[in-house]
Amino acid sequence: MEKMSRVTTALSSSTVTGRTMFCHLDAPANAISVCRDATQVVVAGRNIFKIYTLEEEQFVEKLNLRVGRKPSLNFSCADVMWHQMEENLLATAATNGAVVTWNLGKPSRNKQDQLFTEHKRTVNKVCFHPTEVYMLLSGSQDGFMKCFDLRKKESVSTFSGQSESVRDVQFSMKDYFTFAASFENGNVQLWDIRRPDRYERMFTAHTGPVFCCDWHPDDRGWLATGGRDKMVKVWDMTTNRAKEVYCVQTIASVARVKWRPERKFHLATCSMMVDHNIYVWDVRRPFIPFATFEEHKDVTTGIVWRHQHDPHFLLSGSKDSTLYQHMFKDATRPVDKANPEGLCFGLFGDLAFAAKESLISSDANKKPYPVGDRRYPIFFFKKPDPTEQFAHVSSALSVFETDLDSNRMDWFVKTAQLYLLSGKPFAELCDHNAKVARELKRPQVSTTWSMLRIMFSDPANLSTPGPNLSKLGTLPLMNSFSMKEMVSGVGTESRLERSKGESRQDNIHLDHSFIFLSENEETEGSEGQAEYMFGDAELDDDDLYSMEQENQAAEEQEYTLPQEAFQLRHEIMDNPSAPEHLQQDKADSPHVSGNEAEVTCLTPIESFSLISISQPLFSPHLPASFFCPIVREMLSYYAEQGDVQMAVSVLIVLGDRIRKEIDDLTQEHWYMSYIDLLQRFELWNVSNEVIKLSTCSAITGLNQTSTTLHVNCSNCKRPMSNKGWICDRCHQCASVCAVCHHVVKGLFVWCQGCSHGGHLEHIMNWLKSSAHCPAGCGHLCEYT
């Protein structure tokens, strides 16, 4: 102990100086370690093993330990450790399972001292005892830990964790005989080096492998662990059971953890993958790093504080083949960039809003804490270093709750329960879902379903028109149409007039019962669009289509398609005179203007023969692919608005019409979001139906996992090994209804007390009159 105290004094008396600097390495580094006087650092990796001197302004290469023409695998290092008592002693863990010690005091070029090859697989960690010079501990992928005495040629103790591979071993800084080991199965074990037969304590620290551990240099009971679950946990080992006192949630798997010297609550971590930064955490504030070092461009593989009593310098090595010295004052402070304002909506519409207290509080100039306590003299208080404290930023949280009677999510539950997604023709599904949305006061959704019916229905198979199409009868669903000016009278005076100047041919399309004129022209000499006049009464557009079938049949018999579209006429004279009947009509009509003196009049039969066509001139139905782009945009719109219910429902109802237009990942995301919402509202049947109707393999497999049902025979109580109804052991029917004594092939309900049961309906009817078991065993059955 005297020797240790002298070393501590010598270390505390030295001062460390320098700046943030780096140097390029020959190869990626796997681990680094620093000597006890903080003047040299060793870098080890698969293809590098060098010692660098730490000067004021730069790293200077001092020694290359990879010597020889053909370096063996003993130079390929997974870990390195510099002894803190003997300045010339190093140990490395080789990837071939060897543990190698190096003596820098040797005069020869090859500094290798001893070689231990007792491990069968890669050695992940080596660790020297903090006070014993000749004691070395190793942990390997083979699941064993070995303790070596460097004065002997082989290990003196072997510790078997009875578990998977050992990822880290660390001697306690305060307990002479104790060391901790972390394993890939998530366990941490504490061992006494005097008892290699069994561990002293074991506990599960993480869900997944524990990659690292580190004892607190000042508090003898604190052990920090980091794992693949992205957590750093601090355990109090002084109690009977390991107690988790702090937990820090990081953003990636934790590969290394090191306590910061002279700072009780600070520790540094680096990640195994994805994240390249080094974080220093204050475990009392685990949600945001205290400081961040962002210099590395690839994964950081090794971190070590330069001096065991200096918290201002951190050394790190990385896969980007660089070695860095970080000054703590140059670190980035994430808390300075943190946003103290926040806004979030709850599931039922509640709003939470957080903002700076200075913005909300009326007395913003008031200091949050008084300066000192007047019960003691003011000179007793030491002014804290602002660089070693979190910035004091506090937010006030306000929660605005919605009216409980509003039931804002009732529409979601009712829609999920009432929607039909399969089992009926497409048009009926759309009509039903549109009606459901309309009754729930969701007009936009209702209109969307109606438009989908119009877009994708087959006109030849339309049998039940929607409520908005009652006036159209069996009208085929056209994508666009317009009426040309059309004026007709009632009785014998009905006529169709055209202005003389029109020479353009009309494009005409008619069905069996309706007349469609595709162009929308204005009459010559008029200022607006032509109106539709029937005698003295004016009708709207919808009434033009209210012709009955029987009238249509009569008209088809009277007006037939002639051989010629226009009847042959006599040769037109240069200055023809108007026919007498035309002049007589114009004289009687009060609506004749001056420029309408010369027009052509056709009789009703002539006029209707021009536009009565029994078959359409072109196909009235556009292909489904024509509407796919706009439907895809519509689904994306609903999904972005948060209504994944509509997106998934349309996806299921349309089926193959639209499924190929949307990539599988997007569909899977919509399905998973909707299923998650359904399960939150405990709509299990609807959720299962959506899973069954899905065509994504990742979704259909959801209800296939964890569905194994182990069945025991109700007679002999042994497991049923076959798939039939007969037990292969007692040769009796295993699931017989206790009421009707027939085999139950559907829903089977049974009492967990006596194991008797039967058909669900039979048991329910039985329990209405008796509480005893229908099998006659005398048990008072209870069903939930």
Automatic annotation (TrEMBL):
Keyword Metal-binding in record: yes
GO cellular component, one term: lysosomal membrane
PROSITE patterns: WD_REPEATS_1, WD_REPEATS_2, WD_REPEATS_REGION
Ranges: WD repeats: 116-158, 203-245
Source species, domain of life: Eukaryota
Subcellular localization, as worded in the UniProt entry: Lysosome membrane
EC number, UniProt record: 2.3.2.27
Catalytic activity: S-ubiquitinyl-[E2 ubiquitin-conjugating enzyme]-L-cysteine + [acceptor protein]-L-lysine = [E2 ubiquitin-conjugating enzyme]-L-cysteine + N(6)-ubiquitinyl-[acceptor protein]-L-lysine
Keyword check for Ion transport: no
Entry keyword set: Autophagy, Lysosome, Membrane, Metal-binding, Repeat, Transferase, Ubl conjugation pathway, WD repeat, Zinc, Zinc-finger
GO molecular function, one term: zinc ion binding
Enzyme superclass (EC): transferase
Pathway(s) served: Protein modification; protein ubiquitination
A GO BP annotation: positive regulation of TORC1 signaling
Role of this protein: Catalytic component of the GATOR2 complex, a multiprotein complex that acts as an activator of the amino acid-sensing branch of the mTORC1 signaling pathway. The GATOR2 complex indirectly activates mTORC1 through the inhibition of the GATOR1 subcomplex. GATOR2 probably acts as an E3 ubiquitin-protein ligase toward GATOR1. In the presence of abundant amino acids, the GATOR2 complex mediates ubiquitination of the NPRL2 core component of the GATOR1 complex, leading to GATOR1 inactivation. In the absence of amino acids, GATOR2 is inhibited, activating the GATOR1 complex.
Protein family per UniProt: Belongs to the WD repeat WDR24 family.
Name recorded for this polypeptide: GATOR2 complex protein WDR24
Species of provenance: Labrus bergylta (ballan wrasse)
